[in-house]
Design brief:
By secondary structure, the chain is an alpha+beta fold. The protein is built from 3 helices and 3 strands, in the order H-H-E-E-H-E. Strands 2-1-3 form a 3-stranded antiparallel beta sheet, with helices on one face. It is globular, with a radius of gyration of 16 Å. The two termini are 18 Å apart. 7% of the residues are buried.
Length: 121
Amino acid sequence: MKFMLLCYDDEQKWERAGNAAMESAMREAIALTHELAAKGQYVLASPLHSPKSASNVRVREGKRLVTDGPYAETREVLGGFYIIDVKDRDEALAIAARHPGAKFGGVEVRPILEIEGLPDR
C-alpha cells in the first residue's frame, strides 16, 4: 500500500527558529528519504513553496474562479495529490479547472520547491 505523508508546518515557529534550524531539518528529512530509499519504501518526496504561493481554482456556473493564497472552506479536506509538469502557472490553473473536483470543492495549485540532495526516483 502506498501512503502520502502530508507534512503541515507552523511557519511562524520555523521563522522564530531561524535558518539554521530549517537547514538542519532539511538535512534530516533528506537523510530520512535516503533511508527509505535504501529499504525500497521511497516513491517521491518534495517540500512545497509557502501556502502564500498557492492558487485555488473553482468552477461555478461554468466560470473559472482563481483565488490566490491558501483558501479552503472548513468542510473541504485534501482528497488527492497530482504532480504535473507544465510550462507556467496559467497552464497549471487551466488543468486544475478541468479537474472534476473544482466544480464541487477546489483544486489548490502550488509550485513545488525543488531542492538538491534527494534520491533519484
